[in-house]
Specification:
This protein is 91% helix and 0% strand. By secondary structure, the protein is mostly helical. It is rod-shaped. It starts with a helix and ends with a helix.
Length: 104
């Protein structure tokens, strides 16, 4: 029965080591720490999901604003062409009026 007693002693030693590992002496144990970490992980995952939703919304808004900016730039370019044409006509009219006044 020596082998049985040796095995029993080794088992007892292993159980004591396992118990020591599971408890750090403060009353905190691995199960409690795992639970705390699990809760923290859930909170971080929730925050990540919220941030992803915010990012998706911001990307949609950025696309909308990009299109609006492009349209505004196209309108501005068209208005510059019209403005230059009007300025040319005004200059031509002023020139014509000055010729008329010199002739009168």
């Amino acid at each position: 029965m020596g082998k049985l007693e040796d095995a029993s002693a080794r088992l007892q030693t292993a159980v004591e080591r396992l118990d020591k590992v599971l408890s750090n002496g403060d009353g905190d144990n691995i199960v409690g720490r795992v639970s705390t970490l699990s809760d923290a992980l859930s909170a971080v995952e929730g925050e990540r999901d919220s941030l992803k939703t915010d990012l998706d919304g911001l990307q949609t808004e950025q696309n909308r604003l990009h299109l609006a900016l492009r349209e505004a730039q196209e309108n501005y370019a068209a208005m510059q062409v019209v403005s230059e044409a009007v300025a040319g006509r005004i200059d031509g009219t002023i020139g014509g009026l000055q010729k008329m006044l010199k002739g009168a």
